[in-house]
Amino acid sequence: MSVPVIEARGVRKRFGDHDVLRGIDLAVGTHEVVVLIGASGSGKSTLLKTMNLIEGIDDGQIFLSGEDITDPRVDADAVRARIGVVFQHFNLFPHLTVLDNVTLAAVRVHGMRKTEARAQARELLDTLGLGAKADEYPDRLSGGQQQRVAIVRAVLTQPEVLLLDEITSALDPQLVGEVLDLVRQLKQQGATIVMATHEMSFAREVADRIVFLEHGVVVEQGPPSQVFDAPQHAATAEFLARVQH
User: Fold this and answer.
1) pLDDT tens readout for residues 145-195
2) Is 70 exposed, middle or buried (0-12, 13-18, 19+ CB in 10 A)?
3) Three-state secondary-structure class, residue 219
4) What is the pLDDT of residue 76?
5) Cα–Cα distance measured from residue 91 to residue 153, given in angstroms and rounded to the nearest whole number
6) Within-domain flag for 154
7) How many other C-beta atoms can be found within 10 angstroms of the C-beta atom of residue 219?
8) Which of 230, 198, 179 is nearest to 44 (CA)?
9) Which terminus of the chain has fewer Cβ atoms in its 10 Å neighbourhood, N or C?
10) Among the residues of 173-230, which ranges form H helices?
């Protein structure tokens, strides 16, 4: 692997007396889709938040394209501008149209000209099946459409890596598919993605690598066929037996 797009080395994170991440090592290559699986509380979301500097770490280092972004001298806002993030909840501004929601960060944070940002956003919305919604307000959209808008907002600025944290868990089951279809498209377009999900069949289909976390430790990682069909660790097998139907 050349220089990883994003890499955690020995990352530790504690909340009070609770060790949430206990020495995580994870390197993600260009155009790679890495899917984090594990029970609630295993550390998936916390790991993603440390990668975006939303949470500080207690030990270790995180690198973005070879740069130590956990160095205290680093401009955290400048780092976050290079990373796309989508969470469970869409966090769209209700008083802005879809187009304005999508372009706000591109204009304010990245300094894109408004006309350029809007043209690119309309093109991207069209490509991803949301062109007709550009001038709507979020409350006129379904949950699945709102989440897709949040993803479009995250990818408009062409981030080096896209972090997706349980992006379907707040959706009605019938809306999950349309959001996952968008992630499939992004994979086909060569995006680098780190994604935490409970959708095991989707993880098997879209991941280049599955990473199973338990109690803040990477227990096992490998291609989906290996992790799902021939897990090497009892903890992985027990987890999959609980969640796979």
Assistant:
1) 998 899 999 999 899 999 999 988 878 887 788 888 888 899 999 999 999
2) buried
3) strand
4) 93
5) 11
6) no
7) 18
8) 198
9) C
10) 173-188, 200-206, 224-229
Would you call 123 helix, strand, or coil by DSSP? helix
Residue 199 phi, psi (nearest 5)? -85, 90
Encoding tokens for residue 114?
Answer: 């408004």
CATH value at residue 86: 3.40.50.300
Orientation of helix 143-155 relative to helix 98-108, angle to 10°? 20
3 state SS of 57: coil
pLDDT digits (tens, 9 = 90+) for 209-235: 999 999 999 999 999 999 999 999 999
Question: What is the span of the domain harbouring residue 176?
Answer: 6-95+162-243
Domain annotation covers residue 134: no
The string over 28-44, giving b where at least 16 C-beta atoms fall within 10 Å of a residue's C-beta and e elsewhere, is: bbeebbbbbbbbeebbb
Beta carbons of 47 and 24 less than 8 angstroms apart? yes
State the pLDDT confidence band at 245, using cuts at 50, 70 and 90: low
- pTM (two decimals): 0.93
Residue 150 covered by a domain: no
pLDDT tens-digit map of 127-146: 888 999 999 999 999 888 99
Into how many domains does the chain fold? 1
In this structure, is residue 138 part of a structural domain?
Answer: no
Strand bridging mode 193-196 / 161-165: parallel
What is the gyration radius of the CA atoms in the chain, in angstroms? 18
Q: What is the DSSP letter of 165?
A: E
pLDDT of residue 88: 81
Q: How far apart are CA 94 and CA 128, in angstroms?
A: 21
